Every structure is written in structure tokens, then in C-alpha cells.
Amino acid sequence: MTGGAGFIGSFLVDELVKKGKRVRVLDNFEAQVHQGRIPSYLNPHAELVRADVRDRGAVKKALTGVTHVVHLAARVGVGQANYQIRDYMDVNVGGMATLLDIIVNEKTDIEKIVMTASMTSYGEGMYSCRSHGKYKMHIRPEEQLKKRQWNFFCPKCRKKLDPVPTDEDTIFENKGIYALSKQTQEEMLFSIGSLYNIPAVSLRLFNVYGPRQSLSNPYTGVSAIFISRLRNNVSPVVFEDGLQSRDFVSVHDVIGAILLSMKKTSANFIPINIGSGIPTGIADLAKTLSRLLGMKIPPMVINEGRKGDIRHCFADISRAKKLLGWEPKISFHDGLKELVEWSLYQKPTDLFEKAVSELSSKKLLIKHDH
Ligand SMILES: NC(=O)c1ccc[n+]([C@@H]2O[C@H](COP(=O)([O-])OP(=O)(O)OC[C@H]3O[C@@H](n4cnc5c(N)ncnc54)[C@H](O)[C@@H]3O)[C@@H](O)[C@H]2O)c1
Ligand SMILES: [Zn+2]
Predict the structure, then answer these.
(1) What percentage of the chain has pLDDT greater than the value 70?
(2) Ligand 1 within 6 A of 73 CB?
């Protein structure tokens, strides 16, 4: 498994070890995620290889005797990717290229490759007008955001559109570097996998949350960022009007999906959404976290936008149900409670303002006409 020291990977390691499987982890302990520490949650029963996923020699060696590859190593900051372009493309696309190059050219025993793609590649989700049916909306132009017009309206009757579930046949159209890197990974995997008959799976994850999420990494994971703010006694900052939504899925449910896809053949070469299927408002998320932490700190809704942000996207999970026999088991409330309880034992550094000032210096925040 690559990236097995990370948030999702470490839980997968635990489950595989519990099942008596032999697990080898390749991870370079990326500084932004691990802050120079080896995480204490690492399972001692997994073999650990500290190396970069682009290091051909190390990856080749790590693949010795391996039958199932779960490729999770990636840089994961969606906003940051748009100004650390070379590095994100290098790791995310180059990592997949390295892996496939070895599998195709060297003697290995690989029976399956599973990767985690991302909902970000869809861009905006699907919407519907009660009178005029469904629409796939596009990333809102800067001009619209400048006017603080956060919502979408029906092109025919101008009524506000409601978000509806987004399925896997929806075309990808996000032009952000992270989204493009994950889309490219998926296309590379399916193309080489089918050419060489290597069973390949791509799970398109929505917003995964849970314990072990890096609380001090301000570039990823809105629940972790909010908790880090609250634990430092400051309000979570909410962009737009706070009514934008995301689909939050517990890391344990994601692990369930990965395990099923490692075993079953029904998901080979068919991308599958893994989400809760339920949209949650971002301001509501901030309020719930504050309440669960026993705090009375309200979110700061700033009514300002970020370029390229989406308004709504939540998963249609019928394919996962049908092909994998998977469905989410952990309610949002229980999942958040678990995350909050874990966070009480952490000492998060709140680096949110650093991340925002980087966005601002790269002119990636919307300049509003006041
Ligand atoms: N968390 C989410 O909401 C989410 C959503 C969609 C997709 N994904 C995908 O799931 C995977 C795991 O994400 P996560 O949330 O666990 O992130 P994470 O940052 O916690 O884990 C990623 C791991 O990869 C390692 N890594 C980074 N660059 C590396 C390199 N060059 N060589 C070797 N190892 C490297 C890091 O050290 C880290 O341990 C990623 O591929 C990510 O794109 C995550
Ligand atoms: Zn209409």
C-alpha cells in the first residue's frame, strides 16, 4: 500500500492486519501531513518502507511478493495544488506512472490495483429545476462570485436550482490541478490496466472525515480545519453564505468500500462514487462541531468566495450499492462525535490564516466590489 501512513491508509492497514493479511506500506511521511513525526497510530504489524512513490528502485523493491496494491500516496491540498503545480502533478501523476511502469515492465505478482479518485474532478454537481429537469452546472465564473451570487438559477425560468445526487456518468470538468491529477491517475490506471489485463478499481471518494486526519494541515479536510480553529478558541471561517454543502463520509465506511473492492471483481474498470449520499451545509458543520466540543464559538460566515470553489456536490451511491454491495453505515452525527473525541487528545496548530494569505497572495480569493 502506498500512502499507508496517512489518514485513510492507516485505517486500512489496521483492518488488513486484523484480517491476518501481510501488509507492506510505502510512505515518505510528507512533512505537511506528518509535521516531521512518525505517527504514533502506525500499526507495528505492517512492514514499513520509508520512500517516495516516485523512487523507481524503492517502489520496485516494495512490490516484491505483493499481490494487491492500494495506491493512496498523493498530495491532497486542493487549493494549494493550484500554486504548487509541478509538485502536485509530479507526485500524483508521476507516482501512478512509476507504479504502472514497474508493473508493466518488471516481473511482479500483481492481481489487483485499487486507487482513490476524487469528487473534485466533477466540479459542480448535478442540479434540478422542478419544472425543467436536471442540469449539470459549471464552475461559477469570477464575475458571478464577485456579485456574491452564490446560487444557480434555472436557465429557462430563473427559479433557484436544487442540488441533486451526482452519478459517475457525470462528465469531469474541474480544471483545478488536484482534480486534474486525480482524473489523470484514474484514466492512466484504467487504460494500462485494461491493456495488460490487470484488474483495476477507482473509488471516487467524496469528503472523507474521521480520526487521524491531519488537524494541523490547513490545506485539506474542512472538518479538521474547523476543529483546529475551535480548539484554538477562534471561529471557523466559512466562505460564501455558509449554505454551500459537501458530502461527508466516515473513513470507516471508506475502508469498507476499499476492502470490498479488493475482493470483488464487479468493480473492475468501473469508477464508483463513495460518499454518504447526503449533503451537509458548511455553516451547519461548523455549528455542530462547536456544539460537540462543548464550545459556544459560532462560525464566522464571511460572505466572500474563493475562485474555483464549487457550491454543491453530493454522491449518487447507487452504483456502489449495486456493484459492491456497499452502503455507508456510520451516521454523520456518530462519525463527527468520534472525530471530536479523538481531537481532544491532539494539539492542533491552527495554520488556517497562513493558507488563506497564500491564496490571497496568489490572487485566488475573489476581490469583491464593496
Ligand atoms: N481525504 C479525502 O477526503 C479524500 C477524498 C478523495 C480522495 N482522496 C485520496 O485518498 C488518498 C489518501 O488521502 P488521505 O486523506 O489519507 O491523505 P493523507 O495526506 O493523510 O495521506 C497521504 C499519504 O501519502 C503520503 N505521501 C504523500 N506524498 C508521497 C510521496 N511522494 N511518496 C510516498 N508517500 C507520499 C503522505 O505522507 C501520507 O501519509 C489520496 O490519494 C487522496 O487523493 C482523499
Ligand atoms: Zn426551470
Answers:
(1) 99
(2) yes
Q: Which ligand is nearest to the CA of 132?
A: 2
Indicate whether 176 belongs to any domain.
yes
Q: Phi/psi of residue 179, each to 5°?
A: -60, -45
pTM beyond 0.90: the answer is: yes
Pocket test of ligand 1: the residue of 1, 2, 7 to mutate, having most ligand atoms within 8 Å of its CB, is: 7
- Atom 11 of ligand 1, residue of closest alpha carbon: 72
Domain coverage including residue 205: 7-361
Which ligand has an atom closest to residue 221 CA? 1
Q: Does residue 1 belong to any structural domain of this protein?
A: no
Taking the C-alpha atoms of residue 138 and residue 146, their distance in angstroms, rounded to an integer, is 16
- On the 0-12 / 13-18 / 19+ scale of CB atoms within 10 A, 44 is exposed
Grid coordinates representing 294 are 462543548
**370 part of a folded domain:** no
Give 322-362 pLDDT, tens digit per residue: 999 999 999 999 999 999 999 999 887 878 888 888 888 88
285 located within any domain: yes
178 is annotated as an active-site residue: yes
Say if ligand 1 is within 6 A of residue 72 CB.
Answer: yes
**Domain count along the chain:** 1
